[in-house]
Amino acid sequence: MNPLMEINKIAHLLPLEVLNDIDKRIGDWLATGGKESDPYIEQQLRFAKKFIKV
């Protein structure tokens, strides 16, 4: 599954400030030429999943 789609699926489990931070980071990444399939997006997904576990 696409990391962005996975983030969207778990977004409701994240506090708004965390979700906004992830959104800003991904938006900045894409705006500077990054791609949705880049490891950086997967890193943001891993962060979100770890945050939920804690």
Helix residue percentage: over 70%
Series of secondary-structure elements, N-terminal to C-terminal: HHH
N/C terminus separation:
23 Å
Structural shape: globular
> How many helices in DSSP terms?
3
Number-wise, the strands total 0
Oligomer: single chain
Which blocks of ≥5 consecutive residues have pLDDT under 50?
none
Portion of residues in beta strands equals under 5%
Overall pLDDT, averaged?
Answer: 96
Report the structural category: mainly alpha
- Let me know the largest β-sheet: none
Rg (C-alpha, Å): 10 Å
Q: Tell me the number of structural domains.
A: 1
Can you describe what's shown?
This protein has 54 residues and is mostly helical. It contains three helices and no strands. The N and C termini lie far apart (23 Å). The relative contact order is 0.21.
Short description:
With 54 residues, the protein is mostly helical.
Supply the key terms.
0% strand; mainly alpha; 54 residues; globular; 3 helices
